[in-house]
Amino acid sequence: MLLSAKDSLLLIVDAQEKLLPAIHQRDVVTSRMRWLGEIAMQLDLPILITEQYPKGLGYTVDSLEEIIEAARVVEKTHFSALRDDTFRDVLSEYNKKQVVIMGMETHVCVLQTAMELQASGYQVFLPADTVGSRRPTDKASAIERMRNAGVEIITSEMAAFEWLEKSGTDTFRHISRNWLK
């Protein structure tokens, strides 16, 4: 199945200040998150951000500042965002069937949220270049597990091109000017 911009919501899970220094390839991960988040903003997709216990782990990283301003931020304490009533209520307000999920850590909060979204009937897409863990083996194992559970494993560029659907539009021209970031 392909992504559709009209059916999609972008979910950024726990991309927080105190987690970031320990994340393997953190600069690549945050760069791809920012890039895809900016495209979601250009396409007016709803964006949700979760923060796991921000008093202890800090807030969403500064490099996503523009996206934070366009997003709805939900604080949580459960590893799976779906276990928090506030998150479930906010998610249901958007009435979207596709969730593109990115964030940290792949094998903990991203995995648990993705698996429960999938089990709840959402079509879940995980751009593998937009998630991170401290250890590469944890990330790889989490991605394999999510794939086996029916989560669509994609890349940030796959998501962008599927949302755009075609070239030749003003939106495509505007976004493609900065494509090679």
From TrEMBL:
SUPFAM superfamilies to which the protein is assigned, alphabetical: Isochorismatase-like hydrolases
InterPro entries per record: Isochorismatase-like_dom (IPR000868), Isochorismatase-like_sf (IPR036380), Isochorismatase_domain (IPR050993)
Cross-referenced Pfam families: Isochorismatase
Limits of the Isochorismatase-like domain: 8-157
PANTHER family, sorted: HYDROLASE (PTHR14119), ISOCHORISMATASE DOMAIN-CONTAINING PROTEIN 2 (PTHR14119:SF3)
The protein's name: Amidase related to nicotinamidase
Source organism of the structure: Idiomarina loihiensis (strain ATCC BAA-735 / DSM 15497 / L2-TR)
